[in-house]
Amino acid sequence: MALVAGVDSSTQACKVVVRDAASGALVREGRAPHPDGTEVAPAAWAAALERAVAQAGGLDDVAAVAVGGQQHGMVCLDEDGRVVRDALLWNDTRSAGAAADLTRELGGPQAWADAVGLVPVASFTVTKLRWLAEHEPPSARRTAAVCLPHDWLTWVLAGRPDLDALVTDRGDASGTGYWSAATGEYRPDLLQRALGSTPVVPRVLGPAEAAGTSTTGAVLGPGTGDNAAAALGLAAGPGDVVCSIGTSGVVSIVSTTPAADASGAVAGFADATGNYLPLVATLNAARVLDATARLLGVDHDELSRLALSAPPGAGGLVLVPYLEGERTPDRPDSTGALHGLTLATATPAHLARAAVEGLLCGLADGLDAVRATGAQVRRVLLVGGGARSEAVRRIAPAVLGVPVLVPPPGEYVADGAARQAAWVLSGGDRPPEWPRPGTEVHEADPTAAVRERYAEVRDLTAGRA
Question: β-pairing, 240-245 with 249-253?
């Protein structure tokens, strides 16, 4: 029995799964936390990986391994391969001004969408490099290579060879802001514009191309970013939307055509199989449920029961859930709004229903944005902490308007990395088919009136803080 390992080096922790390469059966697993903050020493990732691997029983008997990692983080290396400064993570917002400057300098959002399929925001690596050049010139001058968290960990697993051995994949490269998913090429001019130089960048491997071998003798997969790894772990195919309800909401779709959205709502990423992964992020997701449960003084099970006891549309009560501002649509200074409160709707059940529907309508807006790029939507795969809510699972088909599948909870990023490792090991044309029993299927049951009423209130509150 050949074994493969998948690593998920996320913002919060490092998870390692060891699976049977043929069947996907879980053999063992391990986990270790990462430090808090938006600026982290990469050595902490390596230490967490070592602890998680040890908890998972080691890699000595593993034939192949691949790494899925948090996207966009900036890891700068000097000419000797030493880390220049702590890595800036995707959620570090200090480069927001640099994003605005870069957007303006190139000629506006459309120019960036045409160039690399996305419009700069603080999360993307290109903006962090501009911040580095402006605020830490000595560090910028020392920078001989730039890579992403998963690239660096793959390089560490390989024994830290020379800088020319750095590799990445399409999925993660597409989130840098200086690599185009549509053309499959780097844009050195954008790298120069950001950093003032053109350091070494990782070679972009094909989806099942080996990245060398680890110090334990395992074949290394190219790895990928977390969103692409999750899609691979879920076996998402063209037309499948992965809708993740966590701290933030993520709506991404596997598409056969690249996306270039000048509004910036949709990031034109690539996936880990050779297709594309247009993606929308919302700021408000599972914490909308947390806040409503707190307001009502109930736990999540009771919140769900209350929501399901109220009628669809909550009698006209609408919660626009912009509790932390919002990114999609772009309303960073907005707040939540409750509209349609009457004597009849002033009940815990109506508020619970409005919260669940508002959360799902926000994600449906993201789905509309993805659909507007030309992607054909077939079904939704609903994952994340928010998918544990029975009310969310049962109401989602009515709001999203397409069939909704709810896979059992799992470490989908690590599983996707493991599936990639098995693919590289097999040398096949496609990743292996691993069964995933226990998936709930909820057929489409569109309730247009819910979305129409939500849109009325959403637009009524536009421009209001």
Answer: antiparallel
Q: Which of the 8 DSSP states describes residue 15?
A: E
Q: What is the helix (H) or strand (E) element at residue 28, kind and residue range?
A: strand 26-33
Strand-pair partners of 180 = 185
Rounded to whole angstroms, the Cα distance separating 266 from 419 reads 27
Query: Is residue 289 very low, low, confident or very high in pLDDT (cuts 50, 70, 90)?
Result: very high
Q: Are the CB atoms for 317 and 341 separated by under 8 Å?
A: yes
Cα gap 78→323, rounded to integer Å: 42
DSSP state of 163: G
CA–CA separation, 114 vs 255, rounded Å? 18
Distance of CA 23 to the CA centre of its chain: 26
Q: Which segments within 159-299 are labelled E, that is strand?
A: 167-169, 179-180, 185-186, 203-205, 219-220, 224-225, 240-245, 249-253, 267-270, 276-282
Beta bridge partners of 245: 249
- Strand 379-383, strand 404-406: pairing: parallel
Q: Dihedral sign for Cα 327, 37, 70, 409, please.
A: negative
* Structure tokens belonging to residue 163: 């800088």
| Cβ-proximal residues to 251 (8 Å cutoff; 6+ apart), any chain | 241, 242, 243, 279, 280, 281, 282, 363, 366, 367, 369, 370
- For residue 449, give both structure tokens: 């009136």
275 Cβ contact partners less than 8 Å away, ≥ 6 residues apart: 238, 254, 255, 256
**Neighbouring residues of 316: CB distance < 8 A, sequence distance ≥ 6:** 340, 342, 345, 453
Which residues carry out catalysis?
A: 226
* CA distances to 44, 223, 253 from 284, in Å: 29, 29, 19
Query: Nearest Cα to 120, choosing from 100, 91, 93, 149?
Result: 100
pLDDT score at 329: 86
If we measure between CA atoms, which residue out of 320, 229, 239 comes closest to residue 7? Answer: 229
The per-residue pLDDT for 390 is 97
Residue 464 has pLDDT above 70, yes or no: no
Is the CB of residue 413 less than 8 Å from the CB of residue 10? yes
CB atoms within 10 A of CB 213: 15
pLDDT, position 462? 79
Give strand pairing partners of 13: 33
The partner residues of 83 in beta bridges, in order of sequence, read: 77
The number of beta carbons lying within 10 Å of the beta carbon of residue 135 is 12
Omega before 120 within 30 of 0, i.e. cis: no
Kindly state the tokens that stand for 260: 């270039």
pLDDT greater than 90 at residue 445: no
- Report residue 163 CA to chain centroid gap: 27
CA distance 293 to 297: 6
